[in-house]
Amino acid sequence: MKGRSLELINPSMGDTCNLSEVLRAINVGLLCVQRFPNDRPSMHSVVLMLGSEGALPQPKEPCFFTEKNVVEANPFPGEHMLYSGSETSITLLEAR
């Protein structure tokens, strides 16, 4: 919404990517992580949106991830746990 999608593209990709396709994929990705599941597109719709050039809807508020340092309660020492805002998934990241 702030027009900063280009910041998500790795600079090392240089001119090797199609910018309009990358921005379209980012927009579709944001549609897929909207806060309310009923607002998210079906997989069929995702495939159609990625394969077409038509206008896409503006994404609504996403579900945010917040990182919490849970060393005290973490049963896996040396790993950090990420919790989603909806608390439907947990990802363990190994510290290096």
Structural class: alpha+beta
Radius of gyration: 17 Å
Poorly predicted sequence stretches spanning 5 or more consecutive residues: 69-73, 83-87
- What oligomeric state is this? single chain
Biggest β-sheet description: 3 strands, antiparallel
Provide the β-strand percentage band: 5-15%
Number of strands: 3
Q: H/E element string?
A: HHEEE
What is the overall shape? globular
Overall mean pLDDT: 78
How many helical stretches?
Answer: 2
Kindly, what is the distance between the CA atoms of the first and last residues, rounded to a whole number of angstroms?
34 Å
**Largest beta sheet: what is the strand line-up?**
1-2-3
Helical content stands at: 10-25%
What does this structure look like?
This is S-locus receptor kinase C-terminal domain-containing protein. Keywords: ATP-binding, Kinase, Nucleotide-binding, Serine/threonine-protein kinase, Transferase. Residues about 70-75 and about 85 have low confidence and may be disordered. Strands 1-2-3 form a three-stranded antiparallel sheet, with no helix packed on it. About 25% of the residues lie in helices and about 15% in strands. It has about 100 residues and is an alpha+beta fold.
Give the topology, please.
Elements: H1 19-32, H2 43-51, E1 65-67, E2 79-84, E3 90-94
Protein name: S-locus receptor kinase C-terminal domain-containing protein
Organism: Vitis vinifera
Keywords: ATP-binding, Kinase, Nucleotide-binding, Serine/threonine-protein kinase, Transferase
Task: List the defining traits of the structure above.
96 residues; alpha+beta; three-stranded antiparallel beta sheet; 2 helices; 3 strands; nucleotide-binding; S-locus receptor kinase C-terminal domain-containing protein; serine/threonine-protein kinase; ATP-binding
